Amino acid sequence: MIRQNGHIKGYKINGIEIKVSQYADDATIFLDGSEVAFEKCIETLGEFEKYSGLKMNQDKTKVIWFGCPRPPETIYLPNLQFDWNPRKFSVLGTTFSTISKG
Predict the structure, then answer these.
(1) In terms of C-beta density within 10 A (0-12 exposed, 13-18 middle, 19 or more buried), how is residue 29 classed?
(2) What is the mean pLDDT of the chain?
(3) 74 phi and psi, to 5 degrees?
(4) Where is the Reverse transcriptase domain (predicted)?
(5) Which residues neighbour 39 within 8 Å (Cβ) at sequence distance 6 or greater?
(6) Is this model's pTM higher than 0.90 or not?
(7) Separation CA 102–CA 100 (nearest Å)
(8) SS3 assignment, position 71
(9) CA-CA distance, 7 to 97, in Å (whole number)?
(10) Whose CA is closest to 66, among 11, 3, 7?
(11) Coil, helix or strand at residue 73
């Protein structure tokens, strides 16, 4: 549903757009950082929840900015209980971080 939605823009690496990576019950979603893409993604996940009965665990959901920096107070859809300012976190053994190794 997310991959096919033209309003949801993914993260481009070497010209290839990446939107979703999944393994078992873990999903990682890569977006272009726009508010529209984020809102459409949340709408799509809501539709998925409605039809599948599966629900996203907001307590485990993290949002991290890559590429163009955002002010730490940037929060889309503030009613969602996501962790908006993680410095780093791991997904299936891969660490994502905003901390540069210099």
Answers:
(1) buried
(2) 82
(3) -70, 115
(4) 13-95
(5) 76, 77
(6) no
(7) 6
(8) coil
(9) 26
(10) 11
(11) coil
